[in-house]
Amino acid sequence: MAEKLHIVGGGMAGSEAAWQAGNMGVQVVIHEMRPKVGTFAHQTGLLGEMVCSNSFRSDDSEQNAVGLLHWEMRQANGLIMQTADKHRLPAGGALAVDRDPFAQSVTDALIKHPNIAVEYGEITALPESGQWIIATGPLTSSALGAAIANETGAEALAFFDAIAPIVYFDSINMEKAWMQSRYDKGETEEERTAYLNCPMDKAQYEAFIDTLLAADKTEFHEGQTAGYFDGCLPIEVMAERGRETLRHGPMKPVGLTNPHQPDVKPYAVVQLRRDNKLGTLYNIVGFQTKMKYGAQTDVFKLIPGLEDARFARLGGIHRNTFLNAPTLLTADMRLKSRPNIRFAGQITGVEGYVESAAMGLLAGRAAAVEILGGALDMPPHTTAMGALITHITGGAEAKTFQPMNVNFGLFPPVEGLRGGRRGRKDRYKAYTDRAKADWLTWLAPQAAAA
């Protein structure tokens, strides 16, 4: 009987890895501890559950690195992108999804796949034999985390990730708020009005910052440190860095005109993005927080339009675990001390849903090719996936390694192009043109063998 591939964790990375390997004819078993063992952030036992934002970020494959990653995954028949497209919500130039139907569809697709089985229960130790992928994400269970730390001989690195609150739409005062995407971005009216905007004048902004800074926050346990990922900072941490930080970050007022007061430019704007297809839920964009629940309602109700807001979910904070991948993993994502085990997803030190799923795609394909008797070279550094895997498995400085989103700074330069801001559009287009050609070349022999 052919060897099976075992995958620990049914999040974005584990689900994508199983889908890729199953489609290559390999028998796969997904080991998912939920719902038997829960986590702070998960609400269901579904595979592919989104626990933070419902956004996959920019879908622009010509001018944005994450949009390019979307494109590469679609070309590779990626389950996560197929499902995201199926449950897409208006979000301007971004790809946002209806999170509950999305997770249900991922779960249904994997359960129905003839080569994939799902077993529910916690894996607490590193397996001695067999082909395994550990894709337990940032919320790896304490028992398995301890086993990984014991094996690697080093303490697992950790940072704290914060969750943004979700508001019921019917509790928002639309006499103060309005619908508009920044710079009216989008090809349809629905896309151009994808975001809900709450304006603040200077006095309202200053009062908001004062209350935010004074609010009760979650305290860390003894021995824990708050090594946040910069792409997911709590708003109070941003405010502590300077009173104008939020106004130049998630509360920036640019590209928007308030139809209630078209001649008055807001000093700051809070944006909310639709969180479900019905449009009954909206999440506050960029408002991850570690404030205590009572303090959150006091602070967020200072936002014009949210004075009477009702919250479907308040924000929260949880500990995210990741490996020092440049030290511990090989170029094809194996644990150096145990080559039968690969790692994928956020535990490898990538940040974001799409990046996590992309690492699952690569790990699933590499493990499947090995089980089928071959070896898979990782994609070239010039592609989005290649740039990301190269960074985490050796391109990054191990001493200062931190979670990383895909970005054009990870790509090798294209010779002859002008640097600086003025040359950025042409430079990014050159990056993505080269990446697309190289990605299709990398995929071709795999497609022929399928």
In short:
The chain has 450 residues and is α+β, with helices and mostly antiparallel strands.
Estimated helix fraction: 25-40%
Q: What name goes with the CATH superfamily of the largest domain?
A: FAD/NAD(P)-binding domain
Q: What does the largest sheet look like?
A: 6 strands, mixed
Name the overall outline. globular
Q: CATH class of the largest domain, anyone?
A: Alpha Beta
Category from helices, strands and their pairing: alpha+beta
How many β-strand runs?
Answer: 17
Radius of gyration: 22 Å
Q: How does CATH name the architecture of the largest domain?
A: 3-Layer(bba) Sandwich
Low-confidence stretches: none
What is the CATH fold-level name of the largest domain?
FAD/NAD(P)-binding domain
Let me know the average pLDDT: 91
Q: Strands of the biggest beta sheet: in what spatial order?
A: 6-2-1-7-17-16
Question: What is the helix/strand order?
Answer: EHEEHHEEHEEHEEEHEHHEEHEEHEEHHH
**Oligomeric assembly:** single chain
